[in-house]
């Protein structure tokens, strides 16, 4: 009997076994092309034999969207919630779109999610392509904000927050397990939004975010932030999606609260590539991670002689600690698009298990910080990161030394000047007096790139 008690004590010993683990899905950038089987309006090259699940040159046919949502349900139906970070309308000229077409697409994807996850709330946010005209999000109520508020009423499930959504397409909800979810409309900060360009706080969202973070601290809540367009620098292409004054303001608000340990993580889309970043506290210790999910659409960018890489469709499953809100792991699922078309069926497979692939304890900021330092020493880890960026497409582009420096610097530098200073240090051993000259030359390059990239309109 005494022996039995001893075993019992040993068995219930490890603290991990008491951790209450929850799961949620994150899907982004479906970009449905309703003309895939007719005019192929989104396709960047002529596609003579379109595959039933899609083509690297085009946005998604409906079957791909339906199949990805059904696969999420098959892999794990019992999740606490879903994150859906926008861009549901294809890369199609406004000439072929309208408010009703965009709203019809949003309604159909909303219905598909509700059909597959009837008892699970989806915390959804709009992407720049979900507005009509494209990108032109206003700072106050509009027909689109109203219609989407009606569509997502059951998910937001709070009269005050639905009213807030009608005003600026952002909201705050508390999940079943007590995590505060802030769904932001970051499209109003995008350099392609001409309506908000000269404003200081469109839709009052900055002031509200500041208040929400203060309230969360006072109420002892943990916060998850989700939105379409991420702040900071997209690397290795060195793209700042926000107008610089909005990026500065966003970071200023985050920094004001960064030492309070309120934000657990941020989840975005828009990049159409898989990546993460780390936010640090004032004393240089880690604060929280930023995760960017790749797209479901395989669509390949092309403008003039410039082409983007192909990528495979992917969705991700995230585990987190329900008590602390801290993220634990990311399981990335994907299909190889040509194989799926050739086999006439999809086989959604685990692309990677984050903690296993990178040998880290979890995906919290301290673990990602250690990984970042290991990447500085072991560049093969960046090659793996780069392969995942395009969702393990066959024959991916390679990442040279400048590309690797840019990625390493992008993990922790969220402003153009800071990123530039970091990449300069990373690749030059020049006389320091030359430094300022290099810096200015590079700043000019960054500005040109930014102007060019505005036209990519992811
Ligand atoms: C757009 O949709 C609304 C609501 O469904 C409908 O009342 C209206 O007639 C539609 N407009 C056009 C131009 O089709
Ligand atoms: C949405 O689904 C309905 C019903 O299946 C269909 O008639 C309609 O064309 C779809 N809308 C779009 C924009 O594809
Ligand atoms: C914003 O300011 C610029 C420069 O002053 C001006 O050209 C532009 O028309 C303004 N935009 C709006 C929407 O007011
Ligand atoms: C592919 O699958 C669909 C539906 O399962 C079926 O209708 C079609 O005939 C199949 N095509 C080929 C080439 O096997
Ligand atoms: C992911 O990897 C961890 C080890 O880091 C392991 O404990 C876990 O079972 C793996 N999960 C899946 C679904 O492969
Ligand atoms: Zn997109
Ligand atoms: Zn986008």
Automatic annotation (TrEMBL):
Residues 24-273 form the Calcineurin-like phosphoesterase domain. Coiled coil: none annotated. The keyword Signal applies. One of its GO terms (molecular function) is phosphoric diester hydrolase activity. It is found in: Secreted. Its cofactor is Zn(2+). Keywords: Glycoprotein, Hydrolase, Metal-binding, Secreted, Signal, Zinc. GO terms for cellular component: extracellular space. This is Uncharacterized protein. It comes from Patella caerulea (Rayed Mediterranean limpet).
């Amino acid at each position: 009997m005494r022996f039995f008690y001893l075993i019992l004590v040993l068995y219930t010993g490890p603290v991990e076994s008491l951790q209450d683990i929850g799961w949620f899905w994150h899907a982004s950038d479906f970009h449905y092309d309703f003309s895939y089987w007719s005019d192929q309006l989104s396709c960047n090259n002529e596609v003579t034999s379109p595959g039933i699940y899609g083509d690297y040159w085009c946005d998604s046919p409906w079957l791909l969207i339906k199949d990805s949502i059904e696969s999420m349900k098959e892999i794990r139906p019992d999740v606490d919630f879903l994150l859906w970070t926008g861009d549901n309308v294809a890369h199609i000229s406004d000439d072929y779109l309208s408010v009703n077409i965009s709203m019809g697409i949003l309604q159909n994807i909303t219905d598909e999610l509700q059909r597959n996850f009837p008892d699970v709330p989806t915390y959804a946010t709009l992407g720049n392509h979900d507005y009509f005209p494209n990108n032109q999000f206003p700072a106050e109520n509009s027909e689109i904000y109203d219609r989407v508020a009606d569509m997502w009423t059951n998910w937001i499930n709070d009269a005050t927050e639905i009213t807030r959504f009608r005003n600026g397409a952002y909201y705050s909800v508390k999940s079943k397990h007590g995590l505060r979810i802030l769904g932001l409309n970051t499209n109003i900060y995008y350099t392609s939004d001409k309506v908000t360009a000269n404003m200081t706080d469109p839709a009052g969202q900055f002031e509200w975010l500041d208040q929400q973070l203060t309230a969360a601290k006072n109420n002892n809540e943990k916060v998850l932030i989700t939105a379409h367009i991420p702040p900071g620098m997209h690397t290795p292409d060195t793209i700042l999606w926000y107008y610089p004054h909005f990026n500065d303001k966003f970071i200023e608000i985050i920094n004001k609260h960064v030492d309070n340990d309120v934000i657990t993580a941020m989840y975005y889309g828009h990049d159409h590539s898989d990546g993460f970043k780390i936010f640090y506290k004032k004393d240089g210790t880690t604060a929280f991670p930023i995760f960017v999910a790749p797209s479901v659409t395989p669509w390949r960018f092309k403008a003039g002689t410039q082409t983007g890489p192909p990528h495979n469709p992917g969705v991700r499953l995230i585990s987190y600690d329900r008590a602390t809100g801290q993220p634990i792991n990311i399981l990335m699922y994907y299909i190889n698009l040509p194989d799926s078309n050739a086999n006439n069926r999809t086989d959604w497979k685990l692309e990677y298990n984050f903690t296993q692939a990178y040998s880290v304890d979890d995906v919290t900021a301290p673990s990602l910080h250690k990984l970042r330092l290991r990447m500085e020493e072991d560049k093969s880890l960046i090659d793996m990161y780069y392969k995942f960026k395009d969702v393990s497409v066959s024959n991916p582009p390679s990442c040279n030394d400048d590309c690797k420096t840019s990625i390493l610097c992008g993990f922790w530098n969220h402003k153009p000047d800071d990123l530039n200073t970091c990449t300069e240090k990373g690749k030059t051993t020049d006389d320091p007096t030359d430094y300022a000259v290099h810096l200015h030359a590079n700043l000019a390059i960054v500005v040109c790139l930014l102007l060019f990239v505005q036209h990519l309109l992811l």
